Structure formats: structure tokens, C-alpha cells
Amino acid sequence: MADDLDLPSDDEGLTLPDATESVSGLDIGGQAAATAVVERPAPIIRGKIDRHGVAMGTGRRKTAVARVRIKDGSGQILINERPLAEFFPLERDQNMIQAPLVATETAGKVDVWVRVKGGGPTGQTGATVLGIARALSAKDHGLHPRLSEGGFLTRDGRMVERKKYGHKKARRSFQFSKR
Known about the structure:
The protein has 179 residues and is of the alpha+beta class. Helices cover 23% and strands 18% of the residues.
């Protein structure tokens, strides 16, 4: 019965690919895949270092502005000349401010001095985080990818929407009375 069909026999040289062999460099279509290396442009560093070796960064969020200075030290964080826990009593705010230092493994190795004004607690926290991240990036350019991945170098552009004329607030109209 097998003689009736034209099937190749084992001695005719039918070879199957070995399971241990891997075909590399091929994509789905069977053509060689192009290995193009995408080069990233150099990051823009939005901080600076003064002549004493102190890294500075400015952060903004809503209407709050934070001016941050970072230098090598023991890990002390002062905000408006007060300790972190005293200025920001909420643990959430304290953790947010320490997040860029923890992500870059510089917590306890640098002293942070912050002057923040304007806005409320949330805006001041966000401004401080951005300022710390920018100062760390200026101090050591190698930390930029980790800070960028964590989202610490991204400015949150959300602001309060302005009040429009003919409305009670930004979007709320005056109460409509049909009769």
C-alpha cells in the first residue's frame, strides 16, 4: 500500500530540522530581520551645580514653586528650615518626597534643602519631588534614566481651570429657572 504512494523513503535524504537548532535573524515573513539600533538623544538636564558643588533644581506644580539644593551629607531633609515630618505631617507626602532618593539609592547619602512657597500641600509636595529629581539628575547624569522611568522628571501641567463669564465657576452655570 505504501508502494502505491510516491512517498520518499528514509534513504532518499529527507532531512527534518533538528529541534536543537535555532533559526535566528528571521522574522515572521522568513526574511532577515533588520537590526537597527535606535540612538536616544542626549537628555536635557534641567538643573545645575554651583561653584561649591551643590546641585540645584526647581520644581513646579499647580501654583507651588520649590527651589531645591542637594549636597553630599547624612540624609537630612529640611523644608523651609523645618524637618520633613514637621512640614509635611502626612505619611503619603513624606513617602512621595523620599521616592526619588530611594529610587536612585541616594537616601541617607545626601542632604536636601528645600524652599517652597505657593499652592497647598499637594502642590508643594509635587513641586518638591520634581525639584529633588532635577537636582539629582544635575548632580549625577547617570541617574537620569532611573528618574525618568519612575516618572519623577515629568512636570504635571494640570492647573485650575479659569472661571468663565456667564458662569458661576469654571463650568458651573447659574441655576436655570423655567418659570
